[in-house]
Automatic annotation (TrEMBL):
Keyword Hydrolase: yes
Keyword hit for Chloroplast: no
Domain PPM-type phosphatase: 169-383
Entries under Pfam families matching the protein: SpoIIE
Organism name: Streptomyces caniferus
InterPro entries assigned to the protein according to its UniProt record, in alphabetical order: Bact_Sigma-Reg (IPR052016), PPM-type-like_dom_sf (IPR036457), PPM-type_phosphatase-like_dom (IPR001932)
One of the record's GO molecular function terms: phosphatase activity
Sorted UniProt keywords: Hydrolase
Protein name as annotated: Phosphatase
Stretch list, region Disordered: 51-92
Biased composition (Basic and acidic residues): 76-92
Amino acid sequence: MTQRLDVETALRAAAPHELVGALRDALTTAYGATSVRLFLTDYGGTLLRSCDSSGRGEDSLPVSGSAEGRALGSQEPREQQVPRGDETDHHLPVTVRGDRIGILTVRLPGDRCAPEVLDELRYVADLLGREILVAERDTDVYQRARRVSRLTLAAEMQWQLLPARAYTEESFALGAQLEPAYAVHGDSFDWTADADALMLTVTNGMGEGIEASLLTHLAVNALRNARRAGIGLADQAALADQAVYDHYRGASYVSTLLLRIDRATGRVQTIDAGSPQLWRMREKSIERVPLEAQMPLGMFEESHYTPQEFTLAPGDRLIFVSDGVYETLSPLGERYAERALARSIHATSLLPAAMVPRAVLRDVAEYRNAESLDDALVLCLDWFGDDH
């Protein structure tokens, strides 16, 4: 316990850009570690990028097919024997409230791999994740390490607007992904949870590049401003609608899907203001949730919005998709939403919510017979209920 406290003290005292170096020194002293490496998930969710104090992230490992990637996927520590020696690499998930930040790999001599040491290393990996989130306020090291290539300015703006890509607590789990990760345009998502409700928004702004990103920024921040004022869902949509219209006068608008889920009952209030679609998987049944289409935000002056309601049951899975997903055409001209989307939702039913969006987007790209997508978003919500 004293050793763990020493490591924790060293991490908390380290400069924001020196977390990895401070941790390496502390683990060497406390547990005899001979190597300590941090790998961060890249923006596309397909690679693990090495991270040091420079933040260059020059080495990459595939998430699919590597021992580190298997630890990330299973969210369980994995051991890997080092060739020509008695040392073992311990791959430890670095995760904060369901957000899979990366993998901490600690190499220990064989005589230092006692179960109690591994328990302490798991605690250290959790602590490191939280320290990284705090440190990112003051350094670009960890942001820089995640990048396989340079983000477009529009993508930079979009990623800074987003919450985490995954979030988990007792009553629900969330996961989301944007494509193409390094050049996203107008698609976005947002969520917030309090004691009474979970609120979700999925948005799809018109246009491309900077203009699409600016439009989405205005809409998302208008919705946040209204939500934080404590007003109801219909008024949130109306105020955001007015903010967008006042600026663009109807020339540009934002398709938005808003939800408020009562945590005690699973009762959902929703407003379909545009194109994002909602699908539900209940046991083995998959169906599109029928919603009344209302005006996108900013299309007309003083639009009025009326929430619809339905109820979630424990075990339900909701899948939100933008038009870049459901409108994708196969080489033969068939829309992805006609049959392939339901098949993909069923095929990913055993995956945790955090992994579903990446898997669906990979399936969409294969369906289109292309390596990447123009502009697409998938968000997955698993509802457990407060009494699960």
